[in-house]
Amino acid sequence: EAQLVESGGDLVQPGGSLRLSCAASGFSFSSHWMNWVRQAPGKGLEWVGQIKEDGSEKWYADSVKGRFTISRDNTKNVLILQMTSLRVEDTAVYYCARDFKWVQSDYWGQGTLVTVSS
Amino acid sequence: EIVLTQSPATLSLSPGERATLSCRASQTVTSYVAWYQQKAGQPPRLLIFDASTRATGIPARFSGSGSGTDFTLTINSLEPDDSAIYYCQWRPKFGQGTRLEIK
Prior knowledge:
heterodimer, A: about 0% helix, B: 3-stranded antiparallel beta sheet, about 0% helix, about 60% strand
């Protein structure tokens, strides 16, 4: 069965950077778009961005555009979220999710917590 | 910009009853609407995709319907384990969620 495991969440100061990883297994990683979705404490879900199967297309939410970069390594089945210029409002649990059709996601990781605070 | 509005914000029902959750889009959208269930401390779980297709392993008590701007998630024969927050999604947009309490 498909499995997604995020890592890299940490406490970071405003203006800092962080790199999240999502290790995929149990399915053909290179055949799926992949999404990042976040959830601030006690709040709802917010789509962060997505990347095409071969990495040739990437789309981002306006709230992170220019600060976050999504990439993938299909040889290692790993999805990456590089976050820079972090703000307090970026504090959230970050989930990676397998996109199977127009952003609809059927498998989700357990999430990794990013806390931006001084 | 498309906005998804879910109602009600909170729904309190008893076991065995039926829950009707609404998701309204601010303009007509394609039927790529998904519904997710999220319990405390867990990631979202896909229930319905393409507005009305149940995901793998989802009981028939869960059903989705709708088109255009109005979409509905119906849960029949409620069980205590159905207590959760339910989100609708259309492409990159999520609704704000409906909290369902079964008491």
